[in-house]
Amino acid sequence: MSTAPSSVLETEHRELVDSFESFVRRELVPLAAELPEDGDLPPADLRAYVRGRSAKLGFYAGDYPEELGGSGMPFSAVVLLHHAAGRSGCPLAPYALAGSDGPSPLLRQGTEQQVERYLKPLVRGEATRCLALTEPNAGSDAFHLTSTATREESGEWVLSGRKTFVSNAGHADFAIVVAQAGAGTKEGGPTAFVVEMDHPRLRIGQAYDGMSGEQLYELVLDEVRLPADAVVGGEAGIGAALGNGIDSLSRGRLVVAAMCNGIAEYALRLGVEYARERRAFGERIGAYQHVQEHLVSSRAEVEAAKLLTLACARLVDEGVETPENAALAKLTASETAVRVVDRSLRVHGATGWVRGHPLEFLYRYVRMMTIIEGTSEIQKVIVARAMGLG
Ligand SMILES: Cc1cc2nc3c(=O)[nH]c(=O)nc-3n(C[C@H](O)[C@H](O)[C@H](O)COP(=O)(O)OP(=O)(O)OC[C@H]3O[C@@H](n4cnc5c(N)ncnc54)[C@H](O)[C@@H]3O)c2cc1C
Fold first, then answer.
1. Alpha carbon distance, N-terminus to C-terminus of the chain
2. How far is the CA of 281 from the centre of ligand 1 (A)?
3. Residue after which a domain boundary falls, among 79, 99, 119
4. Is residue 213 very low, low, confident or very high in pLDDT (cuts 50, 70, 90)?
5. Confidence check: pLDDT of 191 > 90
6. Beta-ladder partners of 194
7. Closest residue by Cα to residue 371 from 253, 232, 200, 262
8. Which atom of ligand 1 lies nearest, measured to the CA of 168?
9. Ligand 1 center–CA 343 separation, angstroms
10. Which H or E run includes 370?
11. In angstroms, what is the span from residue 27 Cα to ligand 1's centroid?
């Protein structure tokens, strides 16, 4: 039994986490062993299989209610599963849990028809989507979108503009596109639309190869004509995309924090194991204080980040969900994970730098965690505002 301080917050869902870990060990680790060494991103059909299998076992999108196809888990349980996926070190484990290509909280505000047609297949792991929010001149500042949505007399909408850095656009079944409705009028504002990826006027432009193999895409909206019912949430959804989205951002940030903590725990374990075995100058390198400094600092920071994340998740279960808490947890966990992976790589010397070593991959992979779901600077802006500053 673990005696780490954070274990106090892990006991409640121990059985669930054990059963997820057993699924990863028995089913995903053998599949991951077959992955080609040169690719960081598992093939789309394998990711689809993992998603579907995990949904059947009740893990994928587990916090969605049973009537939508989920398992009705408390949020803190989902956070622990994301932690376990990162800690496993299995490259397929993250795809067993819903991420940015899975059920969108925005669709929880969808009309009955949108819930049936779009949300439920996402919860079952049968479909994926992408979110097209960022634009070439509007990233952190998502309130200044220039993509427009114009309502015609017939009630149809026409979307124009460019979206950038969109994950999963190459494989998604549909996009949730946020555009400025009623530009130049008092009505409207940022509005979310469902756009099928095979829409003839929606074009994938540039593809960006990222640090960790995941591809991001530009989406070009070339007068994309949509029916009136494409607005997420119907009439009530017009101008409400960012308001509704902001409500769900906290949970997304806590999930990212949990993934980071899991990755950091895994990287630390690799560092400790190596330091106990590797010898230099006639000693195990773990005996040297400079090496201990890397690993002990990491241990302290991982434990603190984990406690913070798990406590925030527990508060969400209790109905306390503040942007400030989620920002604190995401900021702490993502920056910690970057440092911990770096330190464990240092402990490994050249061995960790070689392509194919898990730390070489994690060093590139973990960096995006300080950008997605709001950069570290933006998390600080949120906390500063909550402190009455600025
Ligand atoms: C791996 C990955 C996946 C992504 N997936 C998606 C996706 O699926 N859909 C999507 O729409 N977007 C996606 N993005 C884009 C992501 O949301 C944006 O990159 C992010 O919001 C930052 O915007 P930006 O890159 O335009 O940077 P900018 O907003 O231009 O920021 C540049 C720098 O200025 C800082 N900064 C900006 N404003 C402030 C401020 N007020 N105070 C202090 N510092 C500030 C930022 O922190 C950053 O350091 C993804 C990005 C990555 C890396």
1. 46
2. 46
3. 99
4. confident
5. yes
6. 176
7. 253
8. 8
9. 26
10. none
11. 36
pLDDT at 243: 80
Atom of ligand 1 nearest to the CA of 163: 11
Q: pLDDT over 90 for what percent of the chain?
A: 91
Give me the amino acid identity at 374: G
pLDDT in tens, 5-57: 999 999 999 999 999 999 999 999 999 999 987 778 899 999 999 999 999 99
- Ligand 1: centre distance to CA 135 (Å): 10
- The percent helix, strand, coil of the chain (3-state, each to 5) is 55, 15, 30
CATH number at residue 20: 1.10.540.10
Distance 339 CA to ligand 1 centre (A): 20
pLDDT value of residue 323: 95
Q: What's the rounded mean pLDDT across residues 159-176?
A: 97
pLDDT surpasses 80 at 209? yes
Question: Using a 6 Å CB cutoff, which residues line ligand 1?
Answer: 100, 130-134, 139-140, 165-167, 210, 214, 216, 368, 371-372, 375, 377-378, 381
Instruction: Return the structure tokens found at 55.
Output: 């949904």
* Probe residue for ligand 1, chosen from 144, 246, 256, 372 as the CB with the greatest number of ligand atoms within 8 Å: 372
Q: What's the domain range around 298?
A: 243-386
Flag whether 112 is in a domain: no
Residue to mutate (ligand 1; options 140, 176, 242, 369; most atoms within 8 A of CB): 140
Number of domains in the chain: 3
| Distance from the alpha carbon of residue 117 to the mean position of ligand 1, in angstroms | 30
Contact 158, 184 (CB under 8 A): no
CA distances from 50 to 60, 91, 123, 164, 242 (A): 9, 11, 13, 28, 31
Statement: residue 1 has pLDDT above 70: no
Return the CATH number at 181: 2.40.110.10
